[in-house]
Amino acid sequence: MVLSPRNIQQEEASEEFVLQKHVAFFDRNHDGIIYPWETFQGFRAIGSGIAFSTVAALLINISLSAKTCPIKNIHLAKIGNDDRGAYDSEGRFVPTKLEEMFTNHAHTHEDALTGKEVWHLLRAKRAGNFINEWVVAFVEWIVLFSIAKDKNSLLQKDTFRAIYDGSLFERMEKERSSSKKKD
Q1: Which helix H or strand E contains 112, and what residues bound it?
Q2: pLDDT in tens, 34-93
Q3: Which long-range contacts (CB under 8 A, 24 or more apart) does 154-159 make?
Q4: Cβ distance 68 to 74 under 8 Å?
């Protein structure tokens, strides 16, 4: 087989780790680098307001861009225990960790976490002396909970999985697009 640029791109795409997929949604021009305006556009595409999207774009790009540029380096942004072991050292999703999180922390509903349960999950898994890293992880989860919770203020297991497997943002954008078409 002759490797053309297209073949190489297809091969790379099939090997793309979910942590890369998680952030690639925000690479709106698909150049491998996420600029603040692309982060802003991504948040707007999933239905976030202008103020929220602006603040999120600034904070995310300021705090992560030095470590993670280009996207293929996203695994370098893993913060202490912020991911509760859901990714391995190379950014691959470990599904058994999701089940473990729900077994240990989903007390109110079997397949969903309340805001309080997410808080307890974060507290249980925070990295010892890395207070600044724990704060970043906490803020990330506050944001994720606020944009991904359902109408009952629960973070459903399938949504939680979508956060980790990289499909959440694409799903949210499609849902928003289809609801706009209905209007």
Answers
A1: strand 112-113
A2: 889 999 999 999 999 999 999 988 888 887 665 556 777 666 665 554 445 677 766 677
A3: 154/109, 154/112, 154/113, 154/114, 155/112, 155/113, 155/114, 155/115, 155/118, 156/111, 156/112, 157/98, 157/102, 157/106, 157/111, 157/112, 158/111
A4: yes
**Strand 112-113 versus strand 155-156 pairing type:** antiparallel
- Euclidean distance between CA atoms 125 and 101, whole angstroms: 10
- From CA 117, how far away is CA 108, in angstroms rounded? 8
25: helix, strand or coil: coil
Q: How far is CA 181 from the centre of its chain?
A: 26
Nearest Cα residue to 21 out of 154, 132, 162, 167: 167
Tens of pLDDT along 104-153? Answer: 999 999 899 999 998 888 887 765 556 666 777 777 788 888 889 999 99
Length of the chain: 183
- Measure CA of the first residue to CA of the last residue in the chain; give whole Å: 49
The better pLDDT of the pair 179, 167 is held by: 167
pTM: 0.72
